[in-house]
């Protein structure tokens, strides 16, 4: 059973859902959904569709895996109230996924500095098997004024 969320957690989650759904068109194209986001942690999901997300071999495309991983880690950064851009990413592809399927990504902060943030993430298939592991460094370009007081 999921734990109850505080008012601040709900506010931050809904704010980030609005920001990403209204302003991130690539995110919408892929069909990524924010499940959780608060204080440096995020969980996202995506339904893998054959006509949208698969490669030549009918498996989930590595670019789609990279995209949900980067997006999830970016949302985790945003849940700290920080606006960021990606500096670098390291990814390990571990297993394949066929369509249709549901994948989830879980991301968390490894280092939260003034100028850079390092995040780690894992992408799971529907049976919670790890299909990919990622680590990224993000450069802080500003803050989300609207939520910064909700996460301190």
What Rg, in angstroms, do the CA atoms define?
Answer: 15 Å
- What would you call the shape? globular
**CATH homologous superfamily identity:** Hotdog Thioesterase
Name the assembly state. Answer: single chain
Total strands: 6
Biggest sheet: strand arrangement = 1-2-4-5-6-3
Number of domains: 1
User: What's the helix count?
Assistant: 4
User: What structural class is derived from the secondary structure elements?
Assistant: alpha+beta
> How much helix, percentage-wise, in residues?
25-40%
Residue stretches low in confidence (pLDDT < 50, at least 5 long) are none
Distance between the termini: 26 Å
Q: The CATH topology, please?
A: Thiol Ester Dehydrase, Chain A
What is the average of the pLDDT values?
A: 95
Query: Order of SSEs, N→C?
Result: HHEEHHEEEE
Topology of helices and strands:
Elements: H1 7-23, H2 25-30, E1 32-38, E2 41-48, H3 50-53, H4 62-78, E3 82-93, E4 101-112, E5 116-124, E6 130-143
Antiparallel strand pairs: 1-2, 2-4, 3-6, 4-5, 5-6
In a nutshell, what does this entry contain?
The protein has 4 helices and 6 strands, in the order H-H-E-E-H-H-E-E-E-E.
Describe the structure.
29% of the residues lie in helices and 41% in strands. The two termini are 26 Å apart. Strand 1 (32-38) and strand 2 form a beta hairpin. The longest helix has 17 residues, at 7-23. A six-stranded antiparallel β-sheet has the order 1-2-4-5-6-3. The protein has helices at residues 7-23, 25-30, 50-53, 62-78, and strands at 32-38, 41-48, 82-93, 101-112, 116-124, 130-143. It has a single domain, classed as Hotdog Thioesterase (Thiol Ester Dehydrase, Chain A). The model has no long low-confidence stretch (mean pLDDT 95). By secondary structure, the chain is α+β, with helices and mostly antiparallel strands. The chain has four helices and six strands. The radius of gyration is 15 Å and the shape is globular.
């Amino acid at each position: 059973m999921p734990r109850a969320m505080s008012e601040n957690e709900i506010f931050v989650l809904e704010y980030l859902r609005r920001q990403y759904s209204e302003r991130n068109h690539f995110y919408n194209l892929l069909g990524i959904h924010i499940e959780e986001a608060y204080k440096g942690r995020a969980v996202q999901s995506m339904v893998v569709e054959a006509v949208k997300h698969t490669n030549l071999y009918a498996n989930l495309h590595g670019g789609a895996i990279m995209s949900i991983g980067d997006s999830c880690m970016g949302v985790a950064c945003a849940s700290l109230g920080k606006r960021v851009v990606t500096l670098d990413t390291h990814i390990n592809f571990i297993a394949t996924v066929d369509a249709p399927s549901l994948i989830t990504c879980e991301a968390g902060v490894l280092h939260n500095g003034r100028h850079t943030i390092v995040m780690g993430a894992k992408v799971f298939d529907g049976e919670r098997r790890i299909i990919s592991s990622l680590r990224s460094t993000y450069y802080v370009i500003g803050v989300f004024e609207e939520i910064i007081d909700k996460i301190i």
